[in-house]
Specification:
single chain, 202 residues, 2 domains
Amino acid sequence: MTINEIRGSGLLELYVIGSLEEEELTIVENAILTYPTLKEDIREIEYALFEVANAYAIPPHGSVKPLLMATIDYIERIKSGEIPCSPPLLRTTSNVNDFEEWLNRSDMRAPDDFDAMYAKIIADEPEKLTAIVWLRYGAPPEIHTKEHERFLIVEGSCDITIGEVKHQLNPGDYLAIPLHISHHVVVTSNLPCKIILQRVAA
């Protein structure tokens, strides 16, 4: 293939995104050896795809990064010998003391300088995720379709609005979020709101 045939074939674009079959990959690699200027074409394609991806990128929910970091921390703790546990299921009769074992641990504390949200996972089980979460300001709207979210307030206070209904929560209060309804959190205390968060498979 000539250099113009390679450029017009779409193979370079497929090469950049890693979607070539073995035979096509050989064709492109040989073409790059024959026509070194194709390397610049490839760089331009990479840049163009990066720009398109940025233009259409959907910003992640505010909880994604803190929960991802908490998951990495939890995996490292398990690798270091922490024995997985099964904390109690959150329900209307739950009490903050039910989670005292984890709340009193020195490694289950938020740094003073955390940004908007910080989390430490207590347990990640097939049927439920349990974590201690600190919110400095609140949490943006979200909707759950596959898991029931439950809150038990440990410290501070917050308003959780489910649909159009606002729930004012203080230490010791429990709230369950129904599926398919938008909800968001606004911290109403001067100190961060510390919560036992549980996400239970629907």
